[in-house]
Write a structure and sequence with these properties.
about 300 residues; mainly alpha; 10 helices; 6 strands; about 10% strand
């Protein structure tokens, strides 16, 4: 089987998050699963860590006093609900397709996990949008014309320059450091919402088994043409026996999209949202509104008063 590259966005000691490239590890001796045992243990521990993070963050959101009723609504009914759904999605995915799983999963379990992944990435992007609106309402920001903030100005990242200018230098630098992570989130969210949905393949075929798999596929087609469904089922079962399950997700190979190992990815994404939320709340606590520049009529009156 050819070694393939995958995209995973993880933390390192050089910054809050950093894109990492890693290759499919060599097959482990005496083991048919994807992850080595120590990695399985680490993933299960991080899953427990996510549950603890969610509980603490939920308590912080509920205990927080908001100046704006709209900010409170976005925090508790928007961000809070999304975090709850994300935490539960992780738990259900780990139950349906645990990282120690070796055999090919049942189709219902695989499809259910796919649905949970799609919900997860929609909610990650939604959390970022909710956080941006919390900032707007808690700080009383207006649009460049001095009116109510419009949707096109609200969001986190380089596409929202007007809003980014309202942050402190340190928080702005922090958000800019998440550029590649945000691109990965946007890619997964956009494809779920607008293009080809995310997909967990049922299995992969080693290069050495491809000729046999294709030969069986021809016999499968022939069985369908002659209406022999018993032979069809038996041949499909033989094809399945050649496959190996891998915890990968993708949406379409034709767009060159990365193949993601979903267990570590969703854990990292939840932890990143947790970190952004806590830093944004600190940014709100330290916010000092800048005095508004006087309008032209106020300046004229000030000049006339000095004459």
């Amino acid at each position: 089987m050819k070694r393939r590259k995958f995209a995973l966005h993880v933390r390192d000691q050089k910054g809050p998050t950093a894109p990492a490239r890693f290759e499919l590890p060599k097959e482990q001796p005496r083991m048919t699963g994807y992850f080595p045992k120590e990695e399985v243990d680490r993933l299960n521990q991080r899953r427990a860590d996510v549950e603890a993070l969610f509980s603490k963050l939920q308590d912080a959101i509920l205990a927080r006093t908001f100046k704006s009723g709209r900010a409170q609504e976005y925090a508790r009914q928007g961000l809070g609900r999304r975090l709850d759904e994300m935490s539960r999605s992780i738990a259900f995915i780990f139950e349906l397709l645990p990282p120690e799983k070796e055999d090919i999963p049942e189709k219902d379990d695989r499809i259910a996990a796919t649905m949970l992944l799609q919900s997860f990435f929609i909610n990650v992007q939604g959390c970022l949008d909710n956080l941006a609106w919390i900032w707007v309402y808690e700080t009383g920001l207006e649009d460049p014309e001095g009116g109510e903030m419009r949707r096109g100005y609200v969001g986190l990242g380089r596409d929202y320059r007007y809003l980014m200018k309202t942050f402190s230098d340190s928080f702005r630098t922090y958000i800019r450091g998440l550029k590649k992570w945000m691109k990965h989130i946007s890619e997964f969210r956009d494809t779920v919402a607008h293009r080809i949905p995310l997909y967990i393949p049922p299995y992969i075929i080693d290069d050495k088994d491809i000729p046999e798999y294709n030969r069986l596929g021809q016999e499968v087609s022939a069985a369908v043409r002659r209406g022999d469904m018993t032979a069809y089922a038996a041949l499909r079962k033989q094809q399945d026996l050649l496959g190996k399950y891998r915890p990968w997700m993708n949406h379409t190979p034709t767009e060159g999209s990365p193949v993601c190992v979903f267990h570590p990815q969703i854990l990292q994404d939840f932890m990143t949202i947790d970190e952004i939320t806590r830093k944004l709340f600190t940014e709100i606590d330290n916010f000092k509104p800048k005095p508004k520049p006087a309008g032209w009529w106020s300046r004229c009156k000030a000049i006339l008063a000095r004459v």
